[in-house]
Amino acid sequence: MRVIGTVGMPGSGKSEAATVAANAGIPVLVMGDVIRQECRDRGLDPAQHHGRIAQALRDEHGPGAIAHQSLPIIEDHLTDATTVLVDGIRSDVEVTTFRDAFGDDFTLVHVSAPRELRKARIEDRDRPGDTDGEPLDAREDRERGFGMDDAIDLADVRIENTDSLDAFHDAVRDLLAADTPHTEVPDNHD
Question: Region labeled Disordered — which residues?
Answer without folding.
Answer: 120-144
